[in-house]
Amino acid sequence: MKEFDTFNAVFEKKPFRVYESEEMILSDYHVFGVHNKIPVSRLTVSVVSKTDDKYLNDFFFDLSHNPPIPRPHVFSQKTDIRHRGRGYAGRLIIIANEICKMRFGTPLASGTTFLNYPHNGNRNNLPAKRVWQKLEERGYAERRIYHGKDRWLMH
């Protein structure tokens, strides 16, 4: 894959985000995919910084640890329209997963809401969901159902 020879990722912390009246505070990180010095793709990865027991569930936490540790998840993902179809988003998720395993001690997961955003209003065109499906097909992620919605967990 010669095209990825100059593909890099930049991991950048953003300000805290409050969820549901301060019941939960999330730390957001932007992960930028850069090809030939041009930003081509971006993820927003969210991790719980503070919460009460109401949100101590397997969406926000890796419950296989004792005590449970916050699970980083992709809150949003976007690839510049001129660079879609080249594998940048999938590659960026793979890189972000390795960063998350080192930084947070647990693999990255997808969110659920943004996966179902149609491209150009076409309900059959769900590019974010397709990226995660390809990661599953290639053995990088495992699909699970969370409250009736698709969700993927990276390995």
In short:
By secondary structure, the protein is α+β, with helices and mostly antiparallel strands.
Task: Provide structural commentary.
The protein has about 160 residues and is an alpha+beta fold. It has one domain (about 1-155): Gcn5-related N-acetyltransferase (GNAT) (Aminopeptidase, 3-Layer(aba) Sandwich). Helix content is about 20%, strand content about 40%. The chain contains 2 helices and 9 strands; from the N terminus they run ββββββαβαββ. It has helices at about 90-105, 125-135; strands at about 5-20, 25-35, 40-50, 60, 70, 75-80, 110, 140-145, 150-155. Strand 1 and strand 2 form a beta hairpin.
Give the topology, please:
Layout: E1 7-19, E2 24-35, E3 38-51, E4 61-62, E5 69-70, E6 73-79, H1 88-104, E7 109-110, H2 127-137, E8 141-146, E9 149-154
Parallel strand pairs: 6-7
Antiparallel strand pairs: 1-2, 2-3, 3-6, 4-5, 8-9
Report the end-to-end length measured between terminal Cα atoms: 22 Å
What's the β-strand tally? Answer: 9
pLDDT < 50 runs, ≥5 residues = none
Q: Can you give the helix content as a percent range?
A: 10-25%
What is the name of the CATH topology? Aminopeptidase
Counting DSSP H or I runs of 4 or more residues, the number of helices is: 2
